[in-house]
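Q: Fold this one first, please.
A: Sequence and structure below.
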Amino acid sequence: MSSEISWFSALCDDDYEYLGVPEPERKSSFPHCSDIVQTADRLGFDNILLPSGYQLGIDTIAFAGGMAPLIKQIQLLVAVRCGEMWVPQLARQLATLDQMLNGRLKINIISSDIPGEQLESVPRYTRTLETMQVLRQLLNGESVDFQGEFIQLQLDPPNARTVSGKAPPFYFGGLSDPARECAAKGSDVFLMWPDTEDAVKAIIADMKQRAFNHGRDLKFGYRSHVIVRETEAEARDAAARLVSHLDDEEGRAIRERSLDSASEGVRRQAELRELSDDGFVEPFLWTGIGRARSGCGAAIVGDPDQVAAKLRRYEDLGIEAFILSGYPHREEAELFARYVLPQLDHAPLAMG
């Protein structure tokens, strides 16, 4: 099986040598984040996630446009926040960006609020689904006649087209029931944060059934941190070092700073930390990173063979795309590419 192996660029002020200890040179900026992307490109990663936060870091779409002439082969998984932009404008921007990337664009849909406002979960995911449906029509080059709860629109598509003439694949995640239904109806790749293998298996089975109920198929992605060293002992030492300067109050402040800090997915990450033994909730899955992170809160930790074997176990469960990261992001990308990437059969995720 050939999976997509992606890395992560810290656009949301999330890069540290010691978790929770900010460093000016690692703050989100075009030079720093560009260095991470170009490193991942050079190392042979298939794709890289460019995250988005309303208050945190720099703008994702503008950053991706700036990166387009600087990269050679890597795809860009660009996060877009559904509550922040009118869909026709977003479609035009993304089609133009896809042209700049020669068709190497993928889209990470974020079910965000409008800045300064807050919707309950069910209507927010309703708006997100409407956004995905209309955005897909426009990026497919179709005229739109849509009368939804949040979007009412009759419009021909913009002249800007993607290279393929079709919408890039939509990556999307969420654990609540409204989030799962939204994903089953509107996304192409269902993303999940770290969890036990039994939980991952159960989520995949549930989402396959939900997608089938709507006459659709889904692919599955897994977003995790990784810490790999030549030996397991060295990897565990690196994990301990990463959190060795972490103040618990600062960690709590970092977790609460994110707008998704009360989501079902974040609740599950906290639950995993509570279930863990010495930080490990199951072999090689360490939850310590979640002490200072709102979202993805665990790392695969081990030697090269252990990390590769853990990824293959997820593949056996049905995962076809991995979005990995580590601290600091550029340095950990180098280590993963040296120790693990040569063991993996990988290629950009093919969409049917």
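Q: Good. Now the second chain.
A: Here it is, same layout.
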Amino acid sequence: MTILTSKLENYSKVELAQKLEEHNEVFHHVLEGTLAGYWDWNIPANTEYLSPTFKSMFGYKDHEMENSPEAWQKIIHPEDLPEVFEVFNKHISSKGEIPYSNECRYYHKDGSIVWVYCKGKVIEWAEDGSPIRMIGSHVDITELKKKEAEARKLNELLKTQNETLEQFVYVASHDLQEPMRTITGFSELLATKYGDSLGEEGSEYLNILKQSSNRMTKLISALLDYSRINKKAALQKVNLKELIEQTVEELNALLKDKEATVNITVPDFMYFCYPNHLHSLVLNLMSNAIKYSKKDTAPEVDINFEEHDGFIHLSFKDNGIGIEERYFQRIFEMFQRLHTRDEYQGTGIGLSHVKKIAEIHQGHIAVKSMYGEGSEFIVTLKKDLL
């Protein structure tokens, strides 16, 4: 500060005025170069300098628009003007603590709408606390607003298409159940009544028919379950630890058969969620962890819990066969299988279920794995869904 003062003392008043003018000119050039329109408002005198870029933003040349607050108030959208004054009054009453910034619409000279982001600040105050001078800038955000509108429209279209597709899947899978039950029923009836007379080859064909119809029935059932995963169910408060423990208990017979060990490190966390969907998520991940185990190794699954940044994280870590990195995205796609049915049974829909359930809880699922050394599925769920 002392150095600055000594330097200023070396200048005369004329030189200081010249230096100030030079700095102002540099400042103006910088703002003009950013294509941001700027303004400088003398509040007591109610006069306002509007830069040429400010005016050209709305299609006017410098001489076509006077330098006054009335000039921009004539072309601002009338619905947005009250908010501009409201933001200004909050800025003044808070002595600048509340920032002056808002988005509003102006009319271009050709009649089109120009969206503007406006930011300003009072830089001089009187002794009585009233504002004297305020400066600010306007940035044209019309293209950004158009992109936002297009994105909203696309999201709405995508939402409608997804709902239509889900409805189609529901209707199709529901209506396919009846003919599949008929095929399965008649194949069993055929085996019972005429099985002895079909011969070895005929019995083999009939067996293939029965297996295919059973597999198709499971696929249809899985599709129907998938179509039912939505937010229409009511949110309920549940103890997350108890929900997981009860779901694992349902697999007790399978766990004993495989001599599997399950370690649950989850606190008594009360969570508003879609309990039936979350139950399905745990069931699918646990079933996979047991199913895709190594032949000579007893399955071991660790279920862990973390909470941070407004989300809860559930991880399901196993010592199974693992997954190659190139398949990390593919496994969450519907009907994508990495193994033959002879190796591992399944519909190829389970992880698609899990992904969709995570998404309706405003979260996502990811996998960490090394082939031959096990996998870890991390489910991230938003903590507050209300």
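Q: Anything worth noting on the second one?
A: The chain has a mean pLDDT of 82.
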